[in-house]
Task: inverse folding
């Protein structure tokens, strides 16, 4: 016997009385069938309702051949009179995301003559896929129109048309349908075959915010949020933008241009810095031309700069070329080079003595050590004869 679907009769119903028809032990709990239910089963892109039946948690609800099956943590014998209560906040949220999706999909499919080829609601958000090339700018009028329809608080109609009426009706459908078809009509936006729960009036959705539009499998994937989730998103983004605005001393509606200015300035400085560093590196290496074994001790040089200074020094000093860069908590970076030399044994012993990591080719090694600059220098003095330390 088909379960009476109270969620179709009153989508706002969150509590109901019913009678247990059957209860079977299944993997994960007990499959509970009632004569009627307000629990919506997973389907049509809308996740399952959660809640309790006689205070027993229901963790999943599905429909099979017209029968709604509740997965309960504990058994309830057939014939028991029960009281069910669905998680109203969750249902309101899912209904709002789903209903918003109808309005957006209906408007997009009509405007771009395409199909909705995927729909997913998760905790992270809502995505809809379309088999058309749609740009972000194209979506702004859609968002505008969708929110206008919400403000107009239009009545939503769900109905089961007769075969003749159905045949004469032009409606959206995600797949080929068989049996009784339920149509959902959002005035001026959508007429679609759908088994989900919907708002009674569009005003209940509150707000639709489109977030992004990215290429996806030859079409596009649109991310969007509705209702309380949309408000929460807008609030979070405003708060982040307020911080950026304060950091950049820019108006809240001009942070993008201010950030672009800062990044441009930074890029120009990087170019200048790179030229200055090249000159400094070459000058520093030149100062030790022909001096033999040399160890330079620097501060806070990044791995690339440490390596470059060692390479330059290798070209000029005519012996062992070493750079140690004290980087505080990050340890002491090293880069050693020696034309035709073999620095492997030296590296292994230093890494072992100072909890280090690193290595390289026989004539060029680099890595990081942890220990005092003084002790590392002493160990190098012990290994390399007549080492000049600066
Ligand atoms: Zn629907």
Result:
């Amino acid at each position: 016997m088909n379960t009476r679907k109270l969620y179709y009769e009153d989508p706002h119903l969150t509590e109901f009385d019913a009678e247990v028809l059957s209860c079977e032990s299944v993997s994960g709990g007990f499959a509970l069938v009632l004569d009627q239910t307000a629990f919506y089963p997973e389907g049509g892109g809308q996740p399952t309702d959660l809640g309790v039946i006689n205070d027993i948690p229901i963790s999943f609800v599905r429909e099979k051949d017209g029968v709604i099956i509740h997965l309960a943590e504990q058994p309830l014998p057939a014939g028991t009179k029960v009281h069910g209560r669905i998680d109203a906040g969750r249902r309101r949220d899912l209904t709002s995301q789903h209903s918003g999706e109808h309005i957006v999909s209906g408007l997009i499919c009509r405007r771009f003559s395409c199909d909705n080829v995927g729909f997913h609601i998760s905790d992270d958000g809502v995505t809809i896929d379309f088999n058309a090339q749609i740009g972000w700018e194209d979506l702004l009028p859609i968002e505008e129109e969708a929110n206008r329809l919400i403000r107009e608080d239009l009545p939503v109609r769900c109905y089961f048309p007769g075969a003749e009426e159905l045949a004469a009706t032009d409606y959206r459908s995600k797949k080929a349908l068989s049996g009784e078809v339920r149509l959902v009509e959002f005035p001026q936006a959508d007429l679609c075959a759908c088994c989900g729960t919907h708002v009674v009036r569009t005003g209940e959705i509150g707000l639709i915010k489109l977030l992004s539009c990215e290429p996806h499998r030859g079409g596009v994937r649109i991310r969007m949020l509705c209702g309380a989730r949309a408000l929460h998103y807008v609030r979070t983004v405003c708060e982040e933008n307020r911080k950026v605005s304060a950091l950049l001393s820019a108006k809240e509606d001009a942070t993008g241009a201010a950030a672009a200015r800062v990044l441009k300035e930074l890029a120009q400085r990087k170019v200048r810095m790179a030229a200055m560093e090249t000159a400094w590196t070459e000058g520093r290496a030149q100062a030790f031309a022909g001096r033999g074994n040399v160890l330079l001790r620097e501060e806070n040089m990044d791995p690339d700069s440490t390596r470059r200074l060692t390479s330059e020094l290798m070209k000029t000093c005519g012996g062992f070329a070493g750079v140690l860069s004290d980087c505080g908590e990050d340890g002491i970076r090293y880069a050693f080079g020696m034309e035709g030399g073999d620095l492997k044994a030296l590296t292994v012993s230093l890494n072992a003595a100072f909890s280090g990591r690193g290595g390289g080719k026989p004539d060029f090694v680099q890595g990081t050590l942890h220990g005092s600059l003084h002790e590392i220098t002493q160990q190098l003095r012990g290994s390399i004869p007549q080492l000049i330390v600066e």
About this structure: The mean pLDDT is 95. The radius of gyration is 34 Å. The first strand starts at residue 4 and ends at 5. Residues 255-286 form the longest helix (32 residues).
